[in-house]
Amino acid sequence: MEKGYLSIVLHAHLPFVRHPEYGDFLEEDWLYEALTETYIPLIQMMEGLVRERVPFRLTMSLTPTLVSMMIDPLLQDRYSAKLDRLVELSAKEIERTRWQPEFNRLAECYHRKFSRTRDLFINTYNKNVVQEFKHFQDLGHLEIITSAATHAFLPLLNKNVSAIRAQIRVGVAQYERLFGRKPQGIWLPECGYEPGLDELLKESGIRYFIVDSHGILHASPRPRYGVFAPIYCPSRVAAFGRDIESSRQVWSAREGYPGDYDYRDFYRDIGFDLDYDYIRPYLHEDGIRVYTGIKYYRITGDAPDKAPYNPDAAREKAAVHAGNFMVNRKQQIEFLYNALGKRPIIVAPYDAELFGHWWYEGPYWLDFLIRKAAGEQTVFQMITPSEYLERYPDNQVAVPSLSSWGWKGYNEVWLEGSNDWIYRHLHKAAEWMVDLAKIFPHAEGVVLRALNQAVRELLLAQSSDWAFIMKTGTMASYAMQRTRTHIINFMRIREGILKNNIDETWLLDLESRDNIFPDIDYRIYV
Predict the structure, then answer these.
(1) How far apart are CA 308 and CA 152, in angstroms?
(2) What class does CATH assign to 4-71+128-264+309-408?
(3) 163: which of 37, 132, 157, 327 fits an S-S bond (Cβ 3.0–4.6 Å)?
(4) 253 confidence band (pLDDT: 50, 70, 90)
């Protein structure tokens, strides 16, 4: 009989980036890189586990913006073309490195990988990876949870409860439409929680959410079992807290596995290393050097001269690290079982893109961990949060504290000098949206279309990603431009509605560009 449980939660999210007005747009690469290096490798990993009948349980959020891009025909076709270029480039690399055996072998590996990915995406998945994830959910191995519509940082929208409610309801509705069932859980964007938010989750039928460790540890009253058991909010929605120890072993820049010297170096990419004229056909139209995904060096250490990457050694190290993680969880759970007098649950949430994109060997590590947990120990079982609630429906009632998993643990990342200017606009736009919904309760025709598009523009402006990017300073101009553009679009639509002077040509173009949530209904703001 097991003494406890491990719940791996992968948070898969990207902001909605779609620019049909351009033939080639730099930020769309975020999706293409994630598909190649994270999402499709995770699907392949789960396919192997199912094929070999290895029991596993994983939880994964697929945010509404990410899913919307995954099912968008334009982006699907552009990704297919991207794969064609990667296959071509990797073939050229085989020829270029023919006298460099340590690199030539890697070029062949990349060529096989890109060719296989292209074949899977086009011929096996029919360009729709969402259905592949749904397949694993239908088999009972994967629990998919939803998120707020555009990953808005909800505690900072609290000036208008309708704005928060709309974010939640749109996310839930999209999940139901695509996955054919109601979501059990929700990933609160950035794990951002404030007391009372759970009441809005309950309205939409949500059973649980994830918070950072201090959200549970600072709850009132103080939880008896800390983060090793969920607590019920007064609404009876459950909150699961992130385990500090298991997070540190993977996330920590100093102690985490991904920094091992045998693993592939993310930053040494041929897009920056090779002669510009050679690599130019595989860059963007503007000629800016970018990551191609072909990387020949391992982390090695702090020395500027990197050693060639050895995939066999890296894979072996991933197996060692998976075994180490499993042993540590066994010891942790055995100690907690004896100390607490009950079976604990270790909740280990991670950004999904860590696995494959940032940490190339991450999918191997996860695969090894699942196999080792299934076959080499009996101390713990892997479980999903909803399964835990089914087995243990009685839990302490407490109110989690305001918290996030951002730097310093609260709201600072999304509310500081570089980005605080956005909120007066977001709050006012939400107020105006509520007013519009009240003024036009039964809109039809072009007014109905305009009101629905106004909601899309507001939701897109509320994305937490823009404030985060402004804070980090990477692509900050794009984040500022996106926020301003969506707010300006919203204001123009509002003015056209109120003055009965809607520019239908412009509206049609806007609908074709910002086409997220095609079934949206502006009355969610009533």
Answers:
(1) 41
(2) alpha beta
(3) 157
(4) low
Rounded to whole angstroms, the Cα distance separating 238 from 147 reads: 16
Sign of CA dihedral 286, 288, 292, 294: positive
Return the sign of the alpha-carbon dihedral for residues 409, 413, 416, 421: negative
Q: Which of 32, 19, 50 is nearest to 129 (CA)?
A: 32
Report how far residue 515's alpha carbon sits from residue 225's, in angstroms, rounded to the nearest whole number.
45
pLDDT in tens, 313-342: 999 999 999 999 999 999 999 999 999 999
415-525 matches 4-71+128-264+309-408 in CATH topology? no
Average pLDDT over residues 271-277: 95
CA dist., res. 100 & res. 5, Å (int) = 48
Task: Domain ranges for the chain, please list them.
Answer: 4-71+128-264+309-408, 415-525
Tell me the C-alpha to C-alpha distance, in Å, between residue 189 and each of 64, 149, 200, 300.
11, 10, 15, 35
**If you write DSSP's letter for every residue of 7-32 in order, what string do you get?**
EEEEEE-------TTSSS-GGGHHHH
For residue 326, the surrounding DSSP H or E stretch is: helix 311-340
Q: Mind listing the pLDDT tens digit for each residue in 13-23?
A: 999 999 999 98
According to DSSP, the residues that pair with 5 across neighbouring strands are: 345, 381
Residue 160's SS3 state is: coil
Smallest Cα–Cα separation from 330: which of 379, 392, 394? 379
Residue pair 419/471 in contact by the 8 Å Cβ criterion: yes
**pTM: predicted TM-score of the whole model, two decimal places:** 0.96
Q: Side-chain half-sphere of 155: how many Cα atoms within 13 Å?
A: 22
- Identity of the residue numbered 260: D
Out of 3.20.20.140, 1.20.1430.10, 1.10.10.10, 3.20.20.70, which CATH number does the structure's domain 415-525 have?
Answer: 1.20.1430.10
Query: By three-state DSSP, how is residue 145 classified?
Result: strand
As beta bridge partners, residue 351 has 11
Let me know: does 167 contact 176? Beta carbons within 8 Å: no
Residue 350 has phi, psi (to 5 degrees) of: -140, 155
Mean pLDDT (the chain, rounded): 96
- The rounded Cα 222 to chain-centroid distance in angstroms is 30
Q: Is the dihedral of CA 186, 189, 193, 199 positive or negative?
A: negative
Distance CA 75, CA 98 (A): 34
**Cβ–Cβ < 8 Å for 38, 378:** no
Question: For residue 57, which of 392, 376, 383 has the smallest C-alpha distance?
Answer: 383
Say which residues have a Cβ less than 8 Å from residue 127's Cβ, sequence separation at least 6: 73, 76, 77, 79, 80, 121
Answer for the pair 203, 165: CB distance below 8 angstroms, yes or no: yes
Q: Is 505 helix (H, G, I), strand (E, B) or coil?
A: helix
